[in-house]
Amino acid sequence: MVDAERIASFISAELEGRRHPGSSVSIVKGDEVVWSRGFGYSDIRNDRRATPETIYGCASITKPVVTTGFLQLMEKGKFSLDDKVNDHLDVKIRDIVGEEPTIRDLLTHYTGMPTRVPPLYLLGEAPIDTRKYIGEAARMVRPRGEEWAYCNTSFTIVGHLIQAFTGIPYDEYLKEHVLKPLEMTSSDFEISPMIEAQLAQGYKRGGGPEKPLIPSPRYYLGMKPADAAGSLYSTVLDLAKFVSMNMNRGTYHGRRLLKEETIAAMQKLQASTGKSRSGMGLTWFRTIHDGRVMLYHTGGLPDFANHVCFYPDERLGVCWLSNLQDGSGWRPPAPTVLRMTKGDESSMKPSIQSTPNNWAKIVGVYGDEIHRSTIRVVNGFLVLDDKLLLERLDDSLYRVHGPSNDGEELTFEFGEDGSIRQFDLGTSFHKSYTPAVLRVDNGAELVGTWIGEYVDAHGFHVMELRIQSPGSAVVNGPNGEYIQLNDFRAELGEVNGHGAFRLAREYALWGTSDYVETEIHLKAVEGKLVGILLGNNGSTKIELKRK
User: Fold this and answer.
1) pTM of the prediction?
2) Nearest to 66 by CA among 193, 230, 222, 297
3) Residue 318 CB-half CA count within 13 A
4) Is the Cα torsion angle 81, 82, 84, 88 positive or negative in sign?
5) DSSP string across 298-319
6) Phi, psi dihedral angles at 510 (to 5 degrees)
7) Which CATH class is domain 4-342?
8) What is the DSSP letter of 326?
9) Domain ranges within the chain, ordered by starting residue
10) For 407-417, what is each residue's pLDDT tens digit?
């Protein structure tokens, strides 16, 4: 029995606290949607309320839908999961490091390719060529399987492979073989007239609830058909049908979309995070939530933020779509609704305020020079990054409580000497932090031109840093324009400065500004300048050589 009043109160409070314009939520049990409701506005200016029939940009929740159609082709013998991707591509993944990535790697984000987003174009603007885009974006930066890195490019490739195997664009194949048998009649991979009639106005915001909402213009993801990494438009009622099929071992209303063994492979832990029980299925994220297996996928576009999750063993799922992206990384807390629907209270126990006996081994800094996390004891609580409480289950296993990863397991891994080597959470592992030891050449000649390549969320870029004097330098940004660096100093083997780079328009649409503030911090080591670029759109390592 769904406690509708309690769930609605929870959702309303979450949205009100964020000044969130609108959301739609559905709860599905087995074959049936047992509750659904809209909250707030799908379009503030036109006074349109959000309803369960409101259509949203699904963003990366597209990926498991695309994977369903892709795996149908595996069942027909078109490929196997351990095939090398390049054996089936007419445009190859480049810069192979070690072994070539497999199709299984595509579906678990372990290809060795970096995280990046596709370009965005306004409706009516010319698309880029899919094959050309893959040729530029599909480059490895680390060995396959070494490290998990969320990779939209992998699913651009999956869409391209569907067309290669079927002879028709991926969206046409999926509409006929996935959306149609699931009766997802309010879903499409483009803004058709039917979609436009019910599509929510998306909003973006550059900061907290006090910042103004900015209506986003209609756009598409890069190519035609739009990038398979995030092109689906749908409702929470249609997505409930997709979740139902996943919970019913591949069938929907008697129609089989995937074999039972294929659905099982999709939901099985294909790539674990360290020694934990969490990680990746085939496209689905897999974790232990309040002691239960939970499968989920989130999604974010410049103006939409979404979350779909389900307990496969209980055949219970939640779909939550919303029309705001505020740049904070927030995703709707659908797992909490899932917990409430199950009838469970928060799993947090009073004993959580009890410092574990091995606290001295646990506290400290984890991560690397770019991404760091801190665990410490505060008022008897074991706290991660000053916001998440850790509840001890045993010496190596903890449960997370707080605004993110709530209810999920965190696993500590110990070395032979008993010290903690790393902790695993979700799809990421965080090694015990040891500061990098660099032999900085304090007497290095820094004046001159330095050049090197780096990669960020917008692609691969060549940076040319022209140091004119110890107090002056210019550098080119991602779009090639040169800017003067502010507060620049090049002395005693270190180079530091900052500036605002203009973004290419097709990537500026992802945020609220045409510029990205970037700091440059480099050190002279063995004839090179090595260090990091810190930007408000992320951080990355870079190495420059003298030109």
Assistant:
1) 0.95
2) 230
3) 24
4) negative
5) EEEETTEEEEEEEETTTTEEEE
6) -70, -25
7) alpha beta
8) -
9) 4-342, 350-431, 448-546
10) 999 999 999 99
